[in-house]
Records
---
Amino acid sequence: MTDKEKFFNSGVLTEERPGAVLPPQDLWESKKNGLVIIECPQRIPCNPCHTSCPTGAVLPFDDINDTPRIDYSKCTGCAMCVAKCPGLACLVVDLTYGGPDEALMKLPYEILPVPEKGEDVACMNRTGQEICRGKVVNVTEPWKDRTLVVHVVVPRDKVQDVRTIKVGRVAKKKEDDMVICRCEEVTLGEIREWIHKGYDTFDELKRVLRVGMGPCQGRGCREIILREVSKITGTPYALIPQGTIRPPVKPVKLGALAKGGDK
Amino acid sequence: MSWTHTADYVVIGGGIQGVAIAYNLAKMGARNVVVLEKDTVGNGSTGRCGAGIRAQWGTEMNCRLGIASLEIFEQLSDELGMDVGLNQCGYLMVAYKDSEFATLKHSMALQNSMGIKTRVVSLKEACEICPGLAAEDAVGFTFHDRDGHADPFLTTFAYQEAARRLGVVFHKFTECTGVKVEGGKVVGVSTTKGDIATPVVINAAGPYAQFIAKMAGVELPNYSERHEIVITEPVEFGVCPPMLMSFTGNFYIQQRPHGSIIGGCSPEGHPEDFGNGHTWAFAELMAQKITKVLPRAKGIRLVRQWSGLYEMTPDRQPILGEADEVKGFFLSTGFSGHGFMLAPETGVLMAELILKGETHLPIGMLHYRRFASGELINEPAVV
Amino acid sequence: MRETEILVIGGGPAGLSAALEAASLGAEVTLLDSDLKLGGQLIKQTHKFFGSKEEHAGTRGLLIADLLFRELEDYKSQGKIKVLSNCTATGYYKEDGVVSYVVGEDEYVRIRPRKIVMATGAQERLIPFHNNDLPGVYGAGAIQTLMNVYGVTPGQRVLMVGAGNIGLIVSYQLMQAGVEIVAILEALSKIGGYWVHAAKVRRMGVPILLNHTIKEALGTDVVTGAVIQEVDSKFQPVGDPQRVDCDVICLAVGLTPTCEMLWQAGCEMKFVPQLCGYVAKRDSLMRTSHPDIWVAGDAAGIEEASSAMVEGRVAGLAAAAALNYGTPEVLKERSTMYHKRLSDLRAGEVGEKIREGLCQVCCECWGA
């Protein structure tokens, strides 16, 4: 087996094949907004690239197992297929974008953290090696299904190789995601949101979020929550009402209670 | 928050009645609506109630209010833009006496004539609706599958948030201390935070409504009863799928969507007071009732007990309308333990009455004149 | 319904002392404790106590408990003290002064006492950080229970959060049990516990990182590490967070008085930072604003076990006296002695905080 075959068999495209062709060069260089590239060289039963295409550029499938064929004269570079393809096999390359050494790539992306506009990102080739840096200029979510299309500016000579990006940052855990009321699993962010809306007493927060209503009855979280209220409203902790503390202090089985307490 | 010196409408009471009226006033185009709440919104009877919603009533008036409210509840989350926790699990009424079953069936005929599809179910069916139900001693059951419960906190807050978006101003920790009347008309209110000049005051003060009315020179026969409730730790949903209710068994029991079981009843001799105290006797009594009708709940632990006030009237029917003695003084009080479930409809009716002088459903018989004339509407179906 | 003259809730150092004192004057006492074995935190204390001879200084806490148990045996055999262990009080009903409790999980009982001493102790505070609910995150009290009551170590490598006395002592006890302490974190720029407790662990090579706090527990099913962060005096991060490997994170960030039933009883409560939370106002004989309820020990404000034992004596004495036990001479003599011991214990530099706290909640006597 040749190296090329080995690569291909491990999921790396090494040359043009049916279902994985480049656009005609002339049209490509002049087409504003770019043209789609689909790298889908295996016959599998799948056609969303066609069904999602608003212009009919991705041609109808005679057999759903066909590899995709493209009428480039109809492609507008809209990237709807980019966001739809379950195999993340579609991308758009716009050679008209920016300066003579630049090009814009619209790449599908489903990893956290979400790239931000203006962010400098690593650009990876088909085997996952970083080959250059790119700059994110836009991030869209065409189908509102959490598959993003990242618009990234890359060196023009790398468009044949760059196939994804990597965001350098680690997904940052936000302080707001911290669970404060463990019984009812309420986060700091939710608590802060409602305090800012004016729900700044323990009773109100309890009612709207259920904090402190679980089996521990606020033992673990009451103080933390009221300190947050104090921080946000500026009211000294000692002046914030603690809310009513009701029995039982510890949960009691209904069966035990039902027998009555006269012993 | 800056003080509001003048308003077109002042609502006294930030319970479900007050917020629903304020929201509907604003929705129908009223501006400068202010709600006064002496504690925090939902801290009174609303936030302490059993959360049930039903159309299974025994009088035509309550059936109309009940079904209309239910219809509003069914789309309320969308309308207000916040989930109100509606769970249409149905009310399964349990009759332990032949006379009680006869009353239920009599009410059912009335309900059916109004399009409320209540039906009699057998013990076998009742056990399918509520697996684990132990009611071999019951003589009959009725069931209406559109009944159920909603979250009183979230419903109240959803009204509050929606009303705020429409410009309604809420003042919490602000207690009404006086209603000013000149020449038989309302001209303003005094509060612990300052005065507000206004031509319209809506008394939605729940268990304190009779005191607010007195400030305006209006005598109401309302009184308050303390009722207690217990709640358990959350357990897997399905221990008590419907709302269970019985008049002679004297209980209502339901499971919140997040798993806690709530139970209440009306033991003899409710203290007529304004305390929100709790008693061991109630915790024990309610545990007995729950474990009798749902034996498999024995191992579930009670986590909290509390109490709230029923704002009673002599015929256990609400008082809606404008005071005869004082123009501009409106009443939405005396719901006798059922204010939460009726509020979506009464909020609309009151807003109509205030803004247009007429309502899409006649509510004249709910005026407090009925107590003087003796035309009471006695509702048999209350716990 | 069960009845008793004096119900002491909590069988730790304060509660035991209160029960013994009240019984010594002839009162009939019921002592309620949630654990299987009496003694509260005392039986977990393998270290020697500070204080004076009267409070058994230089004796290990668990042996002090034994001394109290021995005293208790006499009263038990005379029927003056009835011990209800494995019984957790679940509520106080102020309309009729009834206390409810559960025996284990399955039996529920009510009791109507004439007087109550609330010696309910303290509960551990928590601090918020990511994954703080991961198995392997413990409170220091839980670790002491595991190790010193049941003989089980919680893990191999412990990150201790908090350098107050509890954090320092539990670190030392863990090392005695052969467990490695990766580090002790302290958010302030000074350790909170006794210096000698710190020196004991420092000389064994344990780093105490001042101005450091925990940001996150690492791991998916159990704790495998932690992210720690240096902070400035306003608790704002300084520099990059660091990762440490550990399988246990022990929180020793302080205690707060357990006072649910005091709230339920309607006792006048006040937030006193020096006593670590809300505490009941009390007179010099530990009586709260509720005429039938006294407080003692950590429930009255977080302090050492030595003073808890003396406070318990005072409360037990006063509760018994309220039922006309003891002569005025005996009461005067004993209360003077106990007050002297308390003021000695609180006299030094470390007692300053307690003194500041107490002057905010102590009144000479109620209503007089």
---
Amino acid sequence: MSALLTVEGLVVDYGRGPDATHAVDGVGFELHEGETLALVGASGSGKSTTAHAIIGLLPEGAKVVGGRISVAGNEILTLRERERARLRGSVIGLVPQDPTVSLDPVQTIGRQIVEAIRLHQGLPRHAARAEALAVLERVGIDRPKLRLSQYPHELSGGQRQRVLIGIATVNGPRLVIADEATSGLDVTVQRRVLDQLDALTAEDGAAVLLITHDLGVAADRADAVVVLENGRVVESGPTARVLGDPQHPATRRLIESAPSLASARDRPSRVIAAEGTDASPLLTVEGLRKEFTLRGAIGRGEHIVAVDDVGFEIPRGQTYALVGESGSGKTTTGRIVAGFERPSGGSARIDGELITGARGAALRGLRRRVQYVYQNPFASLDPRFAVHEIVAEPLRSFGIGTRAERRERALELLEAVHLPPALATRRPAQLSGGQRQRVAIARAIALEPQLVVLDEAVSALDVLVQRQVLELLAELQERLSVSYLFISHDLAVVRLVADEVGVLRAGRLVEHGPVDRVFDDPRHPYTRELLEAIPGTAAR
Amino acid sequence: MLWYIARRVGYALIVVWAAWTVTFILLYRLPSDPVSIMLHGAGGEVASRASATQRAALAHQYGFDRPVIVQYFLLLGRALRGDFGLSVQNHLPVAKLVGQALPSTVQIALLGLAFALLLGAGVAIAANYSRNRFLRGLLFAVPPLTASFPTFWVGLMLLEVFSFRLGWFPAVGNDGFRAAVLPAITLAIPAAASYAQVLSRGIEKTLREPFIDVVRAKGAQRARVHLVHAFRNAMIPALTLVGLTVGGIFAGAVVTETVFSRSGMGNLLQASVNSQDIPVVQILVLLSAVAFAIVNLAVDLVYPFIDPRIARPAR
Amino acid sequence: MTDVLPLETAASTAPARRRTRTPFRVRYDLVLAGAVLLVIVLWAAVPQLFTSQNPLVGVGAAAHQAPSAAHPFGTDMIGRDLFARVVYGTRSSLQATAVAIAIAFVASTVIGLVSGFVGGVLDEVLMRVVDVMLAVPSLLVSLLLVTALGFGTTNVAIAVGIGSVAAFSRVLRSEVLKVRTAAYVEAAAGTGARWWDILLRHVLPLAITPILALVALEFGGAILAIASLNFLGYGAAPPAPDWGGLVSDGRNYLATAWWLTTLPGLVIVAVVVSANHISRVLGESR
């Protein structure tokens, strides 16, 4: 049987002339009808570029310079643009990366589905509209009739991704490309959306090309896996074989660092409490409440309770994780604890001293004890400052040491976060994401605080880098006996780092306790739902 | 929705009232003595010769002999009844003078707006649609360049070329459509330049949005991607700009009508400023605020139909 | 602004340093724009170095001449050298522009900073007032002020300055807000930095480029507005030349002496285009 999709020796360049770099460098694989193939790799490995070359939507500056792509007998690279456009949507469907930005914001859901239908089927408008309704029913959206006349912003991320799956499959394509289609979604939604995609493609016998950095997803869904590194295929084969018995070091690295595949045993070693020196908790949060008033363009303000009666304690030298899906109030809680926001009610105390309500000098004094690390290290580092200046800024703020001493100390701090001293004079823009987050961590520990709030601090990082940063955090905890408030949506990561965990849902703490107890014996149904939705269960 | 409309109408009324107040403060309170200005304006040497009686009569007519706050409400009350006072220059009611000048200015303003919209949208779409690098660069570069041209100079250049050299259009006058073409183009050029800039950048930005990839993945051809999706999204910021520049078109009319020796509100304003005819100046400036308020009200009411995020904010 | 950020917030393990320093390249467009402005400033400072002709006294025999080597911009109806008049007119035009910018800038900086930093009710009130001011085009506000203050170069400059306060307060406020809400400014507060430290070390350096861009933009705008008011006849008294007035004088000879309107106009265009271009480049370089 001939393959539905054949890629041979594909080379894609970014840039032109002598500056050109190979983003994809001789990639080849085959995909047969009804099969699912996962293209996995770290970011920058060329997996997305390969997918975009297949559907003919390479970004500006990228160019196919060699190789061959054949989809259902069509030689994609030799076709004219008009003919390629005709294949898109009819033979090849695309489920894009981020559903929140992938629908035209000013057109109704109905119109956008009708457009997809009418571009390839000569249906009159009303028939296309009826077909669009059927599409929404098929992808399992509630109240489909209402959705037709709604706009994208009125739907949740998961619902929008269903609409996009509907659009991708409406004309019965032979090949569906899902480009990190669920990476931005909360785990429970992710699972339901992937189930939907599986069901639809199984119905039509279409092939699926799954682009993902999450080996858990690949393990659950794919028949075969192709592992990419630096634009080259380093390993490929049936999923069970590749993930169960990886041959190439790149594959092994990916598997080891995928949090969803790692078991609790792999957790970095850690001290078991601080040898009974001081049993009183470091941080005490009681009855925390935060309300916001949203003001819409039309109508009066709307009251929203972001945090509702949240209370917990963090012992010295330990890590407390707050997990929850987006909008659960976990970041707001973290910002209140760090003194960036005031609660509407309740209190947070560190060592008995009130954080909530502190102002001016008192608040500034608290900064020596509580530090904060942001999700996006690039935005939180002043672009004009050199790395050593950024790291020494807290020392300067509190007038610690002379300029020369501070510089000396900055180099020590960089060493503590395993950054070479050569980076000290670089600017943030010249660092990689992982390096930047290390700089942010170095800045946070400069004053040797008692508590560091880590707000999704590793979420934006690649799995490999994520793993290294987590190890660094554990090491620093051991050395400095600092406590962490670890805020994350990623349960798999939480299991690796936390001593205790609290599960937030819609501003309320629904369950909390020691991490092993919560993971092995969840008591609240919501916690169970979250745990079951972690991808990669099949491979464990 | 009704609440939205009520709020927008209320806002428009507040803008007009506030503009009236600001003009009152600037014109009647800023200089030490509006009576002297009015008498001076009424004709050269009169001021020095004006008798105390004359001064007192004029002062009484405008209520200057009473406390500021009384003057304010006296004049505001008259204005609300449609009485805007007499022109100091020729003693005609201001409302009548303005009424005579209005149609000719509205004619070139509307024609100019139409030209500006067509030209602005055309250049923006062509600039983004073109695959030719040179043409693209040119179409992106011309609007900011023309935005730097002084309006009066543009008018004079058009006159020189199309009236005096080519003789296609009359150089001066108010009669008919042909006489309105060059003034309207003069008004349109700066407005078109700003529409084109905002629209081209808007289209360029929208074309880089991820949803455009999805539209293309559906199989849409280039023209559809550009017109149905990119242009419609880029229209939203441009629409706000149209509201903001309408006042500017009126301001341009002052210069344009002077250049083309047309009668109209701009010409009336120029003459009134020259003779420091305070009541006429106040009403003309106020009218630009009224035009602004009306156009922005219209824009606000159209907005929900173009940008659904305004009408129905996300939950 | 955001497109300057490298696209790697979800970064890679590879030492992502593709965007290392680009080799310094001469921006000829900037050099040209800067040169135009420099020449104009020199015209204003030392006009006698650029022309030997008298701008106020004409030679009757030389009246109405098209541009030539002797008279690069031609002569007017009473034989005065137009180039000399443009050069000597620069000082008055630039002085007025400087006054206008100073007024616009001081006023709008105060309003913008207060509005952006203090926020709350004060911000609300100031911005409503600004909204009303924006409802009247700046040229009309200037005309209003000229009516109230009287004619003359200084009054025109004051009128133009005040006329542009509203629009610039708006822009300055949004710049202040942008900086105030930047994550790294909050992060600096999080390190315990005092507010003046944050202002001096983090906010001002970030704001300096947009402020310069704004000054350049205002320069172009003020030149245009002042030229327009002079064109309408509210500026300098007759014999003294200024740019807008020169174009206005030439109007009556449009059919016979094209140079009288075209060439002074082109000088204005060159200056405004240069200023706007510098403003744009500064604005984009963030």
